[in-house]
Specification:
The structure is a homodimer of 151-residue chains. The longest helix of chain A has 24 residues. Chain A is mostly helical. In chain A, strands 1-2 form a two-stranded antiparallel sheet. In chain A, helix 2 crosses helix 6 and helix 3 crosses helix 5. In chain A, 62% of the residues lie in helices and 7% in strands. Chain A has a single domain, classed as Orthogonal Bundle (Arc Repressor Mutant, subunit A). In chain A, strand 1 and strand 2 form a beta hairpin. At the A-B interface, helix 2, helix 6 and helix 7 of A face helix 2, helix 6 and helix 7 of B. The structure holds a DNA duplex (30 and 30 nucleotides). Chains A, B: GO terms for molecular function: DNA binding; DNA-binding transcription factor activity. Chains A, B: Keywords: DNA-binding, Transcription, Transcription regulation. Chains A, B: It holds the Pfam family MarR. Chains A, B: This is MarR family transcriptional regulator.
Chain lengths: 151, 151
DNA sequence: TTTTTATATTTGTATATACAAATGTGTGTT
DNA sequence: AACACACATTTGTATATACAAATATAAAAA
């Protein structure tokens, strides 16, 4: 369905407006579908994102700052996301001995197991949207998005 | 900046994953910039979206259902968004006399004036991201996004 | 050493998202 | 009329976003 139909617009939209609406709407579709995958695991998309960042550390602890700057939403509240993960025993949290202002966050074995179980489902989700497009179209979409975002 | 740099990824990402991350991240950039435009007017992006839908009614009242289905985020809570707009006198809300289950929501003169004042800033925001791309690239981006979203 | 400044994180408040349950109203059936 | 069912909206609860203020610690300056 075209974006005008999705929002039931009755007027012709400028291409610059259509692209904005298309990106915002597509993001909603992606997120809704991803939330369904995560639902049985009782974690949110943002919590998943934190876990994924922690796994990427390969055993090294991450502090709040470094998690924050790797998040997609730059204004996420990492403290509270880590709080939730701590309650579920998916991460550990300790004051850094070298610099007591910092907090060392580590993913637990339980957290790693959850991510490993999710891995194939996440890949399936990513491929789902790409499956009817050829490599050239995918590369083109990616390049155009980056050109668009960087003004 | 490429998406890998934005999220400080150290590994090469599959194209299907890059596109997902690119869309999610680009949406955040668009929303953050738009929120700044709205800030002086003390309304949120979702509240703006409701006002824009109501103006599109051209004097006809809209009920909660029809507002909901025109929203970008299909799970927005229209009742509470309209509550906020009512407090600022940007809309009126009345029970529909023909069907008392329905609510008639109308944009006020104050609401219309706010939208009119915002119009040029919104267009400027839309054009900002498109300005370094030619018509063909813009059309191509729009088509690829729609093909992508519809699997 | 005390003060100032910078850094890292937490907390508070308002708003919005997500979803289920509750409420109120209209329609059709017996 | 009484009942069941569908429709439209509201309300409740948990989570997340957005942003400012508060707290704690470290480093630099006086």
């Amino acid at each position: 369905m075209k974006i005008e139909e999705e929002i039931k617009s009755t007027v012709v939209l400028a291409i610059s407006k259509k692209i904005i609406l298309n990106i915002l709407y597509t993001q909603n579709v992606i997120n809704d579908k991803f939330a369904e995958i995560l639902k049985p695991y009782d974690i949110s998309g943002e919590q998943y994102n934190v876990l994924r960042i922690l796994r990427g550390q390969k055993g090294c602890p991450a502090n709040m700052c470094s998690i924050q700057e790797r998040m997609l939403a730059k204004t996420s509240n990492t403290t509270r996301l880590v709080d939730k993960l701590l309650l579920k025993a998916l991460v550990t949290r300790n004051v850094c001995p070298e610099n007591r202002r910092k907090i060392e966050v580590l993913i637990t074995k339980k957290g790693l197991n959850m991510l490993n179980e999710l891995d194939p489902k996440v890949v399936e989700h990513e491929i789902f949207f790409s499956k009817n497009m050829n490599t050239q179209e995918l590369e083109s979409l990616n390049e155009l998005l980056e050109k668009y975002r960087n003004q």
